[in-house]
# Entry
Amino acid sequence: AQSVTQLDSHVSVSEGTPVLLRCNYSSSYSPSLFWYVQHPNKGLQLLLKYTSAATLVKGINGFEAEFKKSETSFHLTKPSAHMSDAAEYFCVVSDMASNTGKLIFGQGTTLQVKP
Amino acid sequence: GAVVSQHPSWVICKSGTSVKIECRSLDFQATTMFWYRQFPKKSLMLMATSNEGSKATYEQGVEKDKFLINHASLTLSTLTVTSAHPEDSSFYICSGQPGTWGEQYFGPGTRLTVT
# Structure
């Protein structure tokens, strides 16, 4: 079965410091992985996606993630946090086993950015 | 590109009435559309998957007679909450998927409050 685990439910950083949001996945297939961001009372916005091309994926707003097969990880990073980055972040994997196009969501990580 | 709209953005209705929520893909054709429910501070819960012109596939535990889904075209899906009760109050989010799998593009969500 496929799954994703976000290792931290809450991360707090100071503005201008690096951000690390951790995600581990489990998949019998070559996975397609995504990071989405959700601001309060809003829908989800795609930050970046990995689909078996380059292992270091660059996304919007300065975020990037590295696919590490040996560690089954897909951690999200940003060199310098901005106040506007405060939001909920979801690590997501395509449910290849069901062949339905469904996505499997992690439980989310709340990012707090302190001034 | 890849914009999904939802209407209304919020709605308050009385117990026992029905509410319809529209989901439109504005600049792409959505082969598949998905409906999610999100409880406060929780991840998204998939309710159903719909393909244009066919019946929706509901997730286990979701009442298909209560949550009616119609996917009338490649750009429009609707969710009707029938005989709404206060426990149906939630944040409902739809998404569209251009292909048969891969990333989904999410609407901004609809806040439903049943009094």
Remarks:
- The radius of gyration of chain A is 14 Å.
- DSSP finds no helices and twelve strands in chain A.
- The mean pLDDT of chain A is 92.
- The CA atoms of residues 6 and 63 of chain A lie 17 Å apart.
